[in-house]
Write a structure and sequence with these properties.
This protein is of the alpha+beta class and 440 residues long. The chain has 2 domains: 112 residues, Uridine Diphospho-n-acetylenolpyruvylglucosamine Reductase, domain 3, CATH 3.30.465.10; 205 residues, 3-Layer(aba) Sandwich (Vanillyl-alcohol Oxidase, Chain A, domain 3), CATH 3.40.462.10. Helix content is 32%, strand content 24%. Strands 16-13-15-14-18-19-17-20 form an 8-stranded antiparallel sheet, sandwiched between helices. Strands 6-7-11-9-10 form a 5-stranded antiparallel sheet. β1 and β2 form a beta hairpin. The relative contact order is 0.14. About 1% of the residues have low confidence.
């Protein structure tokens, strides 16, 4: 019999949201998950599943039952011929990456961090960049889940296809994901090259950049014209030494945190800090060669507030220039760290921000140096307004102000998802305050 623990305090990685569930569970099997759901029904409790806890929002918070899947973390099957891997839902992507490398395989795209669970990655619509590639959910070819009634369902394009269209980005609202089968690619070495240009020049030549690299993204440093252009592409070149790269980044980031802490007392320093950060970290080194997941991943060192929306690609220039113009005429608002701009291919997943359209993701953040809070709300609200005007859709893992009325307009498949969810979970077992704002 699986036991729940009281007194557990959940807090997300950024330490911006948390909750204290009544009971905290760490099941090791599908049978134990079923026991927890049976108990929740008997006591009329809600259930929230948590993975790596990286989402910078309250999407994982609950005061009722919390299920941590970290003990259901096995690789169940590797099919080298099909280049597919089946894993338990709680496996961290960082561990999966290492095992896939040993098998000569890799994930075709990755988010910025890999200390996240497989079910959570797909459940919130994690993405990286590459207009030839979709969000990470598009790599899923099958999954199994347990419903609120304790029923086990298998989903794929050929089995429960409508549910599969919803479950690949599930928000934790459909059931407990137990296993995920992921389409992989052959393991390869990647070259990351960087260059820099003024923002307007990058935006004027966006199509050229998108065609020039399989995984193109760029970083714009607010309060400046500086942009770092990053290309990531497979290569036959030998691995480059990472020693200097590591020290460049370590020294640069620790210095940045100190300078941003000082800027909380002297905000006018932020534009100069952004210029310095660009010079230290993005103008010296132009190339790195490493295995794919080490190139895709980015080491998150500081706690932060984050926003990330997907807009139609043809709105990229207009939206960024509007954000830049607003910051220039609002000197009392400062923006830490670069605005990260990435791209993803259209898909047919009901709640995907890329549903039926190629998209540009514009990611903004504000560091919390040494855990100190910083004013960000005015920046956030203006950014959201620009994103909404451009036809944007928010990243599900990030905090946002949208409600059901917004999502009904943003997502053509929203009503279909709601119908599927209500059939699977008529009593709302898998809801929490975050999801209530989404569905009610």
């Amino acid at each position: 019999m699986v036991l729940g623990h009281s007194g557990f305090r959940f807090q997300n990685w950024a330490q911006t949201y948390g909750s204290q569930p009544e009971l905290y569970f760490q099941p090791t099997s599908a049978e134990e998950v079923k026991e927890i759901l049976d108990l929740a029904r008997q006591r009329s409790k809600r259930v929230k599943v948590v993975g790596g806890g990286h989402s910078p929002s309250d999407i994982a918070c609950t005061d009722d039952f919390m299920i941590d899947m970290n003990k259901m973390n096995k690789i169940l099957k590797v099919d080298k011929e099909k280049k597919q891997v089946t894993v338990e839902a709680g496996i961290l992507i960082v561990d999966l990456n290492e095992e896939l490398t040993k098998c000569g395989l890799a994930l075709s795209n990755l988010g910025a961090v890999s200390e996240v669970a497989a079910a959570g990655v797909i459940g919130t619509g994690t993405h990286n960049t590459g207009i030839q590639h979709g969000i990470l959910s598009t790599q899923v070819v099958a999954l199994t889940m347990m419903t609120a009634a304790g029923e086990m369902l298998e989903c794929s394009e050929s089995s429960n296809a409508d549910l599969f269209q919803a479950a690949r980005l599930h928000l934790g609202s459909l059931g407990v994901i137990l296993t995920v089968t992921i389409q992989c690619v052959s393991h390869s070495t990647f070259r990351r090259s960087s260059s820099h240009q003024p923002l307007k020049e990058v935006l004027d030549n966006l199509d050229t950049h998108l065609k020039s690299s399989e995984y193109f993204r760029f970083l714009w440093f607010p309060h400046t014209e500086n942009v770092s252009i990053l290309y990531h592409d497979p290569t036959d070149k030998p691995l480059s030494s990472n020693a200097n790269w590591f020290w460049d980044y370590a020294i640069g980031y620790y210095l940045l945190e100190f300078l941003l802490w000082i800027s909380t007392f002297l905000p006018r320093l932020v534009p100069w800090i952004n210029k310095f950060f660009f010079w230290v970290l993005y103008t010296g080194r132009t190339e790195r060669v490493d295995i794919s997941h080490k190139v895709f991943n980015f080491e998150c060192r500081f706690r932060q507030h984050v926003q990330d929306w997907a807009i139609p690609i043809d709105k990229t220039k207009e939206a960024l220039l509007e954000l830049k113009a607003w910051l220039e005429k609002t000197p009392n608002v400062v923006a830490h760290f670069p605005v990260e701009v990435r791209f993803a291919q259209a898909d047919n997943i009901l709640l995907s921000p890329c549903f039926h359209r190629d998209s540009c993701y514009i990611n903004i953040l504000m560091h919390r140096p040494y855990g100190k809070d910083v004013p960000f709300q005015e920046y956030w609200l203006q950014y959201e307004g620009i994103m909404k005007k451009a036809g944007g859709r928010p990243h599900w893992a990030k905090a946002h102000t949208c409600t059901r009325k917004d999502f009904e307009v943003m997502y053509p498949g929203f009503q279909k998802f709601c119908f599927i969810r209500e059939n699977l979970d008529p009593t709302g077992m898998f809801l929490n305050p975050y999801l209530e704002k989404v569905f009610y």
